[in-house]
Fold:
Amino acid sequence: MEHYWQEIGALTMRWVKRLSREKFSMLFTLVQPMLFWLIFFGNLFQRAADTQVTQAPNYISFLAAGVVVMTVLNNGLAGGVDLLFDKENGFLERLMSTPIHRSSVILSRFLFVMTITSLQVLVILGVAFLFDVHPATGLLGVATILLIGMMFGVGLTAISMAMAFSVKSHGDFFSVLGFLSLPMIFLSSALVPLVAMPGWMSFLAKFNPMTWVIDAVRPLILSGWSEALPHVGMVVIVMLVFDALCLYGGAKAFRRAMG
Amino acid sequence: MDRAIAIDVKQLCKSYERHKAVDDISFQVYAGEIFGLLGPNGAGKSTTLRTLITLLHPTSGSAAVFGHDTVREADTVRMLIGYVPQERAIDRFLTGREHLELLGALYHLSKTEAAKRIDELLTLVELNAHADRPAKTYSGGMKRKLDIACGLLPNPKILFLDEPTLGLDVQSRLRIWEYVRMLKTRGLTVVMTTNYLDEADQLCDRLAIIDGGKIKTLGSPAELKIALGGDIVSLTLKETDRTAGLEAVLKDQPAITSVRTTDKGLDIRVESPEKALPAILDSANRLGCNIEFIQYNRPRLDDVFIAHTGRAITESVPETGST
Structure:
């Protein structure tokens, strides 16, 4: 067990070191493009969006939950990229020829991605705060948001890693990634509530796990515990199923790639 | 030869879908030797190597490292081996020292133990001065040195090198060869793949020529060359009328395998040139044959390779997918 922690600790620190060496990348990781969605898109649609439809005091407060979950989505889907590069340049093989627990590499990646994602979510909630979006459920609500985000992120990162282990080239990886992320966003309640969508879109959006996540995060920010709790309960169940499926697929891809 | 066996491969097969990458190979590597797997790209060398380092499971057959099965006792095997991958498996953003520290943790060394070993290794591969620079600033040769230091970090009993000098300049190649020889003198067993004939010839105590997933021949470079029939001494004689007489005398000499008449003189296959050459000159003198020209050819490993695979190593193999 002590060995296990030593491995995971060292591997996680490697990701941290890598990030800290790339000054630009670190800057843009914290001041991420997702902030532009909140600041520009949020304010841009302030008057175009009907508060009767969004059921929120203003559009930016409606959008905040969406941007939080979009951040989780992007980080999760990109979570396997570094393992992909490790696979391609042989570093992964070097790690795997050492007497480490087979899961250490993967766990270190989860740990790193979840930490970065949580920091980013906090930055977004902080900026939203500056635009007068105060989470109705307070700090406990923020903690709940982080927890839900992590549950969603684990599944997404597992998908990303499964892809990293399965694709032939990183070109394939990035095209699938680019193809996945936009429909996931548009076919969810991130930008517009389901009731305001064309029927066929809202129908599809119901099957998008991201919708469930946003529907739990949004009342935590806008309404309060009484309205949020049933959604939170629901999303925990949905996420347990989602994560189980993704982890199963990820483990299968990993085993296939590793011998 | 009664020597300790470091690696024992028995009827190893590895298939990918319909393609057989490794097809029923068996061999042993003795402790303390440099053993080479020589073959063109796609021959099955890397697949064999990856099986030995526990990264691939055999489709059938088995491989054991110091008696430990590479599948059932993978963790024990991993503690005994060091691996230097074919690609420059370097993290551009980490420094040389950080690479070694990471591996130290993965081999469960304590901080002080790791620090001591890392200092030794950095000195050994002469990277001390560059240890704290990110690896992206390293030259190809320096990266290779770091690779080797990484492979040596666990203080392994066997070091596996996958194409150790692929793509290196001549100087760096010679350097790496020096390291490998030095490691041998320290008692390490070295297993390497290569598709350079000169590398196999210079470096390996014994080697297996692999082609199409099968071992074509196995032995020391000298044995393999001798097996072709020995070195050839070609005589050009001034008076060809005495050729037959000389041939008759030489045929019975102990150090000579065969004698063949050519249009200029004789082609003599010899077992040991040291013994054969004086005998040849002596006989020629006694018979009064005037020798115009002597040419001595030692079979090269190229000849061995061609004899066993039917083509030169540089000729490409039909594409077979995964290696």
In short: Residues 229-298 of chain B form a domain with the Alpha-Beta Plaits fold (CATH 3.30.70.100). Chain B touches chain A at residues 50, 53-57, 75, 78-79, 81, 83, 85-91, 93-94, 98, 101-103, 105-108, 134, 150, 154 (CB under 8 Å). The first strand of chain B starts at residue 5 and ends at 16. The two ends of chain B are 33 Å apart (CA to CA).
